[in-house]
């Protein structure tokens, strides 16, 4: 027996508007992936910049040891940080929502007046805002959601998944961040060849991340990829320059 529209849970999103997995976790993928690439390549570029007179002064082993250690430590830190941040924002939203709901149920007329003022400020006429507010207070959950969204700017965090978002951040960080190190696993560590290939690997990783961003946002592919690559290139130049300055 099929469910009628009235049987559909109010918090269930319309399937036609539901975000895909890439879109749902886009922030974590881009944030973790970009930081992983830049952080790891900063190690490679910093060591290469310091080894102006030859890679053997420092050696590829140091690049791998420091790069992998930094990759795992920062990846775990970022994943746990995303978990704690998302959980804290969700707890804050839940607490504020309970408070707003309790206040609205206790003083519905004050709530109606505040909603009317809010709607009028969003462009409705005073008459339409009053009528709409009077009907909205009959559905306290919806009225509270509107007050939170337009009155406080708090994003709805009820569907947030702290553990999943933290895990995606960690996996994106490690998956993309290991790419600049791949040439040091495969090749004889001469600075010119290996570091050059690491640059190409890094540009490829940044381009792939920009491609994922474009696929999720359907924005301009040139803008999505060039912005992602541009940010990474600036960080890499700073790291190389710092290594050259200190090491030289």
Overview of the structural elements:
This protein has one domain (26-247). It has 248 residues and is mainly α. Helix 2 (26-50) runs parallel beside helix 7. The protein has helices at residues 21-24, 26-50, 60-106, 108-121, 126-136, 140-152, 162-177, 182-186, 191-217, 221-247.
List the helices and strands and how they pair.
Blueprint: H1 21-24, H2 26-50, H3 60-106, H4 108-121, H5 126-136, H6 140-152, H7 162-177, H8 182-186, H9 191-217, H10 221-247
Helix pairs in contact: 2-3, 2-7, 2-9, 2-10, 3-4, 3-6, 3-7, 4-5, 9-10
Notable traits:
transmembrane, disordered N terminus, VIT1/CCC1 transporter family protein, 248 residues, membrane, mainly alpha, Ccc1_fam, manganese ion transmembrane transporter activity
Summarize the entry for a quick read.
This protein is mainly alpha-helical. The protein contains 10 helices and no strands. The N terminus is likely disordered.
Number of domains: 1
Task: Please identify the oligomeric state.
Answer: single chain
Low-confidence stretches: 1-18
The gross shape turns out to be elongated
- Give the averaged pLDDT, no decimals: 78
Order of helices and strands: HHHHHHHHHH
Could you give the distance between the termini? 76 Å
Largest sheet: none
Percent range of helical residues: over 70%
Total number of beta strands: 0
């Amino acid at each position: 027996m099929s469910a009628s529209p009235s049987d559909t849970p109010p918090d269930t999103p319309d399937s036609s508007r539901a975000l895909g997995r890439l879109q749902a976790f886009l922030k974590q993928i881009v944030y973790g992936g970009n930081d992983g690439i830049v952080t790891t390549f900063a190690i490679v570029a910093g060591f290469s910049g310091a080894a102006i007179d030859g890679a053997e002064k420092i050696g590829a082993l140091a690049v791998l040891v420091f790069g992998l250690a930094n990759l795992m430590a920062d990846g775990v830190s970022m994943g746990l940080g995303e978990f704690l941040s998302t959980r804290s924002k969700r707890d804050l939203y839940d607490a504020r929502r309970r408070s707003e709901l309790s206040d609205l149920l206790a003083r519905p007329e004050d709530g109606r007046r505040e909603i009317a003022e809010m709607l009028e400020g969003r462009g409705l006429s005073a008459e339409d805002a009053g009528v709409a507010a009077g009907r909205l207070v009959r559905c306290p959950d919806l009225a509270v959601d509107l007050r939170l969204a337009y009155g406080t700017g708090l994003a709805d965090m009820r569907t947030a998944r702290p553990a999943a978002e933290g895990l995606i951040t960690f996996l994106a960080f490690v998956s993309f961040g290991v790419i600049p190190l791949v040439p040091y696993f495969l090749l004889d560590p001469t600075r010119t060849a290996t570091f050059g290939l690491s640059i190409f690997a890094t540009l490829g990783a940044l381009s792939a991340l920009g491609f994922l961003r474009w696929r999720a946002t359907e924005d301009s592919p040139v803008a999505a990829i060039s912005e992602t690559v541009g940010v990474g290139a600036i960080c890499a130049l700073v790291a190389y320059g710092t290594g050259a300055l200190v090491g030289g």
